[in-house]
Design goal:
4 helices; G-type_lectin_kinases/EP1-like; binds 2-acetamido-2-deoxy-beta-D-glucopyranose; Agglutinin, subunit A; signal; 5-stranded antiparallel beta sheet; disulfide bond; glycoprotein; Pan_app; 3 domains; mainly beta
Length: 458
Amino acid sequence: MASSSFDLIFLVVMLLSPFMAVAQTNGSVPVGASITATDDSPSWLSASGEFAFGFHQMENKDYFLLSIWYEKIPEKTVVWYAMGEDPTDDPAVSRGSKVELTADSGLVLTDPQGNRIWSSGGFLGTVSSGVMNDTGNFVLQDTNSDRLWESFTHPTDTLLPAQIMEAGGIVSSRRTETNFSLGRFQLRFLDDGNLVLNSMNLPTKVAYEAYYTSGTYDASNSSNSGYQLIFNESGYMYILRRNGLREDLTKTALPTTHFYHRATLNFDGVFTQYSYPKTFSSNRSWSPVWSEPENICKYNPILGSGACGYNSICSLSVDRRPNCNCPQEFSLLDQNDKHGSCIPNSEISCKDNGQNSSEELYDFVELRYVDYPSGDAERLQPQNDEQCRKACLNDCLCGAVIFLGKDCWKKKLPLSNGKLDSGFNGKTFIKFKKGYLPPGNPGLQIRRREGTSSSSQE
Ligand SMILES: *[C@@H]1O[C@H](CO)[C@@H](O)[C@H](O)[C@H]1NC(C)=O
Ligand SMILES: *[C@@H]1O[C@H](CO)[C@@H](O)[C@H](O)[C@H]1NC(C)=O
Ligand SMILES: *[C@@H]1O[C@H](CO)[C@@H](O)[C@H](O)[C@H]1NC(C)=O
Ligand SMILES: *[C@@H]1O[C@H](CO)[C@@H](O)[C@H](O)[C@H]1NC(C)=O
Ligand SMILES: *[C@@H]1O[C@H](CO)[C@@H](O)[C@H](O)[C@H]1NC(C)=O
Ligand SMILES: *[C@@H]1O[C@H](CO)[C@@H](O)[C@H](O)[C@H]1NC(C)=O
Ligand SMILES: CC(=O)N[C@H]1CO[C@H](CO)[C@@H](O)[C@@H]1O
């Protein structure tokens, strides 16, 4: 007991005085230096000690992420990670993996068996040293101090003050908050000068329609078009046009002398600039400064599932982040991915009909204020919603109908772009097979207007 409370005091002292734990450093890393992923791996610190490069231990403590993080905040927020070209790869590596700074290939990451997993590579020249810069940029330079490679020109899901993104640049979301595999969303600075947010197909990376566009493309006069996305050292992000004018994304930023900043494409597709107080207080956290888009639930791409997975229903929370919920009688395909697709607890099928009537086999989940706007298969004009349901019931291929005004829309499956919309006056009926008890997940049941929850708050 005595020794563990001593440990606790020691730990508190360590947390309160970061310099004690940190070896003197000027941020420089010599060729030949290496780090092996263990529970207490050292890291390469910037001169101020604010950024560290090394192995960040994952939730599953046997896995590590080769990354750069904010060292002086308790959360050790990751701002860059080594990501292979193959989108199916999980960038987390196992215990005993090693990163080494080499003259020919720069940073080289190998697994415990010595197989190369990732390298910075792709440059001409010979590395003489690496520098973990105080800006959060890890730079490889040659003997003339020319930059051969830098993490700032290979962003992952986060941009930092002093970082610039040129046309062609891409920031990609991670899979979930704790899974750093490639996610479905992208922030791209297009060659035409527009900054856009879009979802994409995985693993082929085909980009779908944008759900945010900066509007910094002038077809009639390219000098008015965007040229660079700049996150300046004072924490202001803006698009610089070729004619020198700026399109401000950050309206007001807290001073960098007292606040850390980052802009992250969250795993759910919302791009947010955050700040975090540098000075100690009991209640510190990353607070949003601004975010885009205003309402990601309104996203209606022709292809893909929309803001949430297939069949799922998107609702916006106060911080502009989406919640995704499965309809009643549906469950998450992957329990670890709340924003992923929902699957029916029991599949409807044209082979079900034997002696039993459709009424005996199936029923409907009725949803109010829920729309699945795209993916119509047929349009009928029955007298009422009861006949709309009947039409679906007696069509063994029909999984859902929406009755709106005088129209009954049979939907294609799986359902996409589902959203909670307080202004939607239709009724959504989703067919399900009776007599199946769902495992745990009660799903979403919305039958009447629910006070504040909706997309039309802004
Ligand atoms: C950083 O420190 C190392 C030794 O600790 C030294 O060799 C190197 O020249 C220094 N680099 C700079 C840029 O001061
Ligand atoms: C580190 O960043 C500063 C600007 O923030 C820059 O002046 C300096 O050249 C950078 N050092 C290296 C080695 O890139
Ligand atoms: C992360 O997600 C990817 C893609 O879905 C999956 O293959 C991988 O197993 C996940 N990793 C963990 C640690 O769950
Ligand atoms: C393009 O716009 C710039 C101002 O941004 C203006 O000076 C220039 O004359 C325009 N060029 C043409 C061809 O209209
Ligand atoms: C960044 O942009 C802001 C807003 O325009 C400006 O006030 C500030 O001086 C800029 N900082 C730097 C380092 O250029
Ligand atoms: C702590 O921070 C949260 C989020 O920023 C805020 O909502 C809450 O009011 C803060 N509490 C105190 C006691 O400052
Ligand atoms: C497959 C199926 O649902 N069969 C049912 C048909 O209806 C009879 C009587 O209602 C049930 O006993 C069967 O289980």
